[in-house]
Amino acid sequence: FSEFLLQGRFIFGPDVRSLFLTIFLILAPVLVFCIFVARHLMNDFPDHWGISVMVVAVVFTVYDLTLLLLTSGRDPGIVPRNMHPPEPESLDGNNDTGNGQTPQQLRLPRTKDVYVNGVVVKVKYCDTCMLYRPPRCSHCSICNNCVERFDHHCPWVGQCIGLRNYRFFYMFVFSTTLLCLYVFGFCWVYIIKIRDAEGSSIWRAMLKTPASMVLIIYCFICVWFVGGLSVFHFYLMSTNQTTYENFRYRYDRRANPYNVGVVNNFLEIFCTAVPASKNNFRARVPVEQGLQQSRPPTRGFMSPNMGKPVGDLELGRKPVSWDEPRSGADIRDLEVGGMLDEKEGRITHASPDLSREALPVELMEGRAGMH
């Protein structure tokens, strides 16, 4: 489930608290750099060029944090859930059950075949969202949502990386790499200037500025992570793969139906408009709709796994039964406080909506006028 901010303008993953750690790991070394390194370099360059060292560091940090917010605070491409399973497709193109099969005997197929650039791709049925996932879509076990062009769930940004925020994720990782190299380089510049000014060895100059030494070690360690991640995702973009597809399908051993050439792959990611969200997170949900989600489907069709425990291989969670309540408002939590009055034969002390939801259908039909 997701966390919302500013009435749905920002949507974060359930582990959004890790975002504050990421912000701290970026801001803290930059502050140390500005106070103990850049401030001393302001007068060491001619024509006031030393001021640009601090200005670039501050602007680069603001740019980096903005990309972090764009990655973490937007809908990654969540596919809206269905309120009931889709109707199974019969062989003759209709959905009537007059050919010897009862509704209870009709089951939804577990997978479907779709064509992508002339290549057959299997799409899976999601038991949680009650839909057939679009190609390249996968269900995130942390966010509990199906995400289009699912890449991975990043704990550092507290959000899934998918169709609508992948470009911002890569720009954030790459800009963080450049920021590490920038701080790393100018720390060495400051150490060299101290050595030249005092005529001492490089080791004595290092002892004069311990903050520079800490920043050099910190940036050296970080650049291996963010730099390696930048190179890896550069390879994925050049071949039009996702992290999930790279580890699961191994397109180096089979044809990749999404690869349209290196140039077109990069143009698809960086030069196309970001698709509009399929969800209106600022809309108000009617109360009746929330209660109807607890009702079983009116049709008799069954999930491909109805009646037996099912588990999604891509979820990595404990298998659940299809007939377990799946909405946030569990029917067991709807406790009716009303009692049947024997003298008057009507329900008292009960909410009309909840009493309708809890009573059997036969009783409700007999007391429609009363309700």
TrEMBL record:
Cite the residue spans of the region called Disordered: 79-105
Its Enzyme Commission number? 2.3.1.225
Question: An example of a Gene Ontology BP annotation on this entry?
Answer: protein targeting to membrane
List where in the cell it is found. Answer: Membrane
Q: Which GO terms describe its cellular component?
A: endoplasmic reticulum; Golgi apparatus; membrane
Listed A to Z, the keywords are: Acyltransferase, Membrane, Transferase, Transmembrane, Transmembrane helix
**Matches recorded under PROSITE patterns:** DHHC
Q: Which EC main class describes this enzyme?
A: transferase
Q: How does it sit in the membrane?
A: Multi-pass membrane protein
Q: Which reaction does it catalyse?
A: L-cysteinyl-[protein] + hexadecanoyl-CoA = S-hexadecanoyl-L-cysteinyl-[protein] + CoA
On whether Phosphoprotein is a keyword of this UniProt record, the answer is no
Composition bias (Polar residues) maps to 92-105
- The UniProt entry lists the main location of this chain as membrane
Which part of the chain is the Palmitoyltransferase DHHC domain? Answer: 124-248
GO molecular-function annotation terms?
protein-cysteine S-palmitoyltransferase activity
Its transmembrane ranges are 19-42, 48-71, 168-191, 211-236
Per the record, what about its domains? The DHHC domain is required for palmitoyltransferase activity.
To which protein family does this belong? Answer: Belongs to the DHHC palmitoyltransferase family.
Protein's UniProt name: S-acyltransferase
What's the source species for this entry? Aegilops tauschii subsp. strangulata
